[in-house]
Structure formats: C-alpha cells, structure tokens
Amino acid sequence: MSTSQFELGCNSEYGELKxxxxxxxxxxxxxxxNRNIRYLSGEIAELxxxxxxxxxxxxRAAAPHLWEQLASAVERxxxxxxxxxxxxxxxxxxxxxxxxxxxxxxxxxxxxxxxxPTYVLGKHVIETCIRRPFRRKEVWATRxxxxxxxxxDPEVRHVASPRAELGVAGDEGRGPFxxxxxxxIVGEHDVLCGNTDLTSNSGGSDWLRxxxxxxxxxxxxxxxxxxxxxxxGVMCLLREGLAMAYLPALGGSLPAPIADWDxxxxxxxxxRMLATVGMNLDPRRHIIDERLERVISELERHGMEPIPIDIxxxxxxxxxxxxxTLPISRATA
Length: 333
What we know:
By secondary structure, the chain is of the alpha/beta class. The chain has nine helices and 19 strands.
C-alpha cells in the first residue's frame, strides 16, 4: 500500500479522509474481568469472569466463535474504507517479549483499537498513556507503521505523554492517563479532551494543554459523567455546526467551544450501542452501525449520507468503527 498519495496529518474530525490504521485481532488476549474493563457484558464478560485474577485468556483458543465474529467485523471496517478510496494500514504483530510488558500489573495483549495509543493532531503524532496497563504496549506496533512517514516529513513532531506511575497489581495508579478516544479536534485551534472514570484523567488533559498551547491550540477539558468509555463514546462531530451526543453524560449541554452547535441527541440505549462512535469519510458521509435505525434516519434528516455497516460483534467488545481506526491523514474540513 503506497503512502505517496497522502500526507501525514489530521486537521479535523470530518474533512476528507485519506488514510487510516485499522486494528487487528491476531494474538488477542484479554485480562480477567475487573473494574477497568467493566464496560463489557454478556458472553464476553462471562468468559473473562472465568479467568483467574491476574491472568488473561487467549480469545481465539478459548472462544473461537467470538474471535471469528470479531475478526470478520474488523475486516468489514477495513474493506469499507478501501471501497471508498481510503488507504488502510495495519499495526504490526507483537514481538514475543513485548506481550509480557507490564504483565505484573495486568496480563493481556490487544491490537484491536489503534485509536487510543496514538493520536495524530495536525502535524503532531502523540503517543498517549492508556489507563489499562495491558494496552500500554500497543503504541509500539503503531509506531513502526508511522515511523517511515514521520521520518520523511520534517514538519511532523513526534512526542509522547508522560508514562504513568506503575501502581500496583489490580490498580492502575494515578496516571497521568491520556487516550486517543478522548481527543476531538474542533476547527483550526480548539481541542476537546475528555476526562472519564475509565480513561483519560486531569493529569493527561493538563499535559496535552501544556504541550499544545505553544502551537496555538486551545485545549478544553470535558468531564464525562458515568461509566462511559471515552469522550467519543458520548459525543462526535459530524460537520461544522452539527454534533451527535448523549447530553446527560456532558452535564446536559455541549461543551465550549461548540455549545451553540445543533445536536442530534441520542438515548442511553443508543449510546450503549456506541451510536457516537461511527466515523466520517468527509463532511457528508458517515459510517455507522446498521442496527441504529433511528439515528440513521436522523442523519439523513440533517442532510448526511449514512453508510450502514454490520459491526454488532465489534461493539460487543466495547468499541465501534472509530475505536478500531486511527485516522492518519485527513484534510481540513
């Protein structure tokens, strides 16, 4: 897959999308059920509840039907991007010695969600620090894919947020934590950064503010109430002046600097189905879970073109299209 057709850099949430990194399910191992993955439910939660404390489970070996369903959903996402002319790259697999990193805090290994360990904001490639220890190693697999493009572009700044304090087994510690799923670009100068009970905290958003402000960005911290996974789990931007959100998680209204935008409000049930975790191909076209029929109708009513996709078995793992996708080249809207 040639990278000559795009330039590394993302300047909006809904400008024309040119290239992405899509996750993979090779070697997927999940830790025993615990507080920082309590967003999982059903058969998956039952599987993880059988894992001894401090251990992990090879999903493909223990539940091949779950693994195969998930793999098919992820490949459908990748194929959808390719069908619409978007270049798709994939993280490399873990090396054996990488899989054990921080295993004393939390065992497991995943390359499913590249949206979180790295975030491309303008010409800044930011390596984050994920709250769940078993996911902190993912950054290496994405870095190898992006490094040639970083090296080739003298305008790109490649940085990492501070590493979290080690904590103790069963407790992720104080952080600072910063995850890509909590970062949303607004216009040329504003950035929203969610603070949640499960992902980024004030230490992470404070670091992001200190880093970005000298480059002319304004970082707005957005508290998210409830056990929601990421700011993107309760809000997304569809085009200039139009957002989609579950407002109770945002204190009842959209945050500054988009407080006066129109909003497609979603219900708690739709939010739990990850209604806000679709993804724009451009200011008009939006990829979304095909089961969200009312939301799809609302998108059409607001002049959008929904692209429905079957991701039921992906959302069961707590993520949707945007979670398995790291945008690495997107034009200014």
